[in-house]
Structure formats: structure tokens, C-alpha cells
Amino acid sequence: MYLCFFIGYSLENDVFYTIKRPAEGVFKDKGSKFLAFAFPIESEQEFKDHLARLKKQYFDARHHCYAFAIGINREINRSGDDGEPSGTAGKPIYNQILSSNLTNIAIIVVRYFGGTLLGTSGLIQAYKGAAADAIANAEVIEKHVQAKLNLSFEYELLNQVLKIVKGEGADILNQQYDNTCTLEVSIRASKLELLSNKLEKIPGVRIEH
Fold first, then answer.
1. pLDDT tens-digit series, residues 8-51
2. Of 7, 30, 75, 129, which sits with the fewest C-beta atoms within 10 Å of its C-beta?
3. Residue 27 and residue 125 in one domain
4. Residue 6 domain-assigned?
């Protein structure tokens, strides 16, 4: 996972929390059933794909409401009420994402109407409860913002470069070894400067951020 689009984060605080895998939750009230589905995502398109699939799977449901957030500071976020009174569905779902300090997550709540109106407060509690249950059933994990470096150097420098790259815990994403070698590496953002400084001390290593 390479979240180089994250902006506004502090290098001293490049940690964020998301969920490891999809999770589900449910809330029932006066015959209405609210099915919540939480997904880890890295792009808005992933959210759209999940929403389209659930709308197809639960085509007979009355509403498909949602909220999602992407980015360490949730720079990209959306919520939708899908026909429910404004502010009674998407916002309560999103507030559960906020209160749980999560990002890179989408929660979609599918509602089956039970025949009895719940009122504004009842809807808010229902969508909040469904989203909270999905989060409670999820495994929350800690992740770090990643940064990338592209390196090029002559083959005789390969061992020196690899020693530093591996020593700093960077991951090699792509590699090509020839007379001139190229590496694409990923490293925790807070360690980027240290890695760059060490590599710059090797004459002949070219670095692109």
C-alpha cells in the first residue's frame, strides 16, 4: 500500500488506522433491518465498485446509504443518504468513521423498510448503530504513510545500495540489474530523509523522489 498522495501529515505522525478486511454489522428497529458493510479502500473507484455490487446484490432494498474516507487526514470523503431525509444516514455513518479514528475505509448500509417510520432520531440511531456494529466486528490495524524513491547507479555499486536499502527497512518494488541498475523502493515516510541522506553519500547514485 503506497499512499504517496497523502498531504498535510506530520513526518513525526505518519501513522493511520484502517481495517484489515471487510466486515459486517446489523441493526434492527421496528421491522426495519439495516445491514452494514465495511471495506478497506485506497481509492474512490474501489468504493464505487463495492456500492455497485451491493446495489445489484440487494436490489430489493429501499436504501443504500454510505460514507467513506481516504487519506491520513481524510482529504477525500463523501457521504450519501440515498433518499433518506438529509443528514439522517450518510452523516451518522461518517461520524462513526471519525469517532473510531479510521481512514481508507468505506461503510455502506443497506436498509430494508419494515413498514413503520422511525423518524429523524430513529434513523440517525439506526445508521449509527449499524455502522458501529460493522466497525466493532472489524480488525483495526495500524499502517504508515509510504514514500517512494527511484534509484539508478552503476552495477558495481549494487551491494552498497542494497545494504542501505535493506538496512533501513525499505521495500523493493521494482528492480532492473544491468550495467546500469534501477530500483524503485518504498519506505515509511518518516524515514525517507534518512534513507536519502545515506544513499547520497555514495558517489554515482542518482535519486528521484
1. 344 457 899 999 999 999 999 999 999 999 999 999 999 999 99
2. 7
3. yes
4. no
Give the global pTM. Answer: 0.81
Cβ atoms of 4 and 72 closer than 8 Å: no
Of 83, 141, 86, 133, the C-alpha closest to 107 is 133
Distances from the Cα of 66 to the Cα of 76, 93, 121, 202, angstroms:
14, 7, 18, 51
Say how many residues make up the chain. 209
What cell was used for 120?
429523524
Residues 81 and 37 both lie in one domain: yes
Domain that residue 132 falls in: 15-143
> Nine-digit cell at 138?
472489524
Contact call for residues 140 and 96 (beta carbons, < 8 A) = no
Q: Please identify, among 95, 126, 143, the residue that sits at the C-terminal boundary of a domain.
A: 143
Tens digits of per-residue pLDDT, 175-185?
999 889 999 99
**The C-alpha cell that represents 34 in the structure block:** 439495516
Number of domains in the chain: 2
50 and 96 together in one domain: yes
Tell whether 99 and 30 lie within a shared domain.
yes
Rounded CA-CA distance 206/202 in Å is 9
φ/ψ of residue 169, rounded to 5 = 80, 20
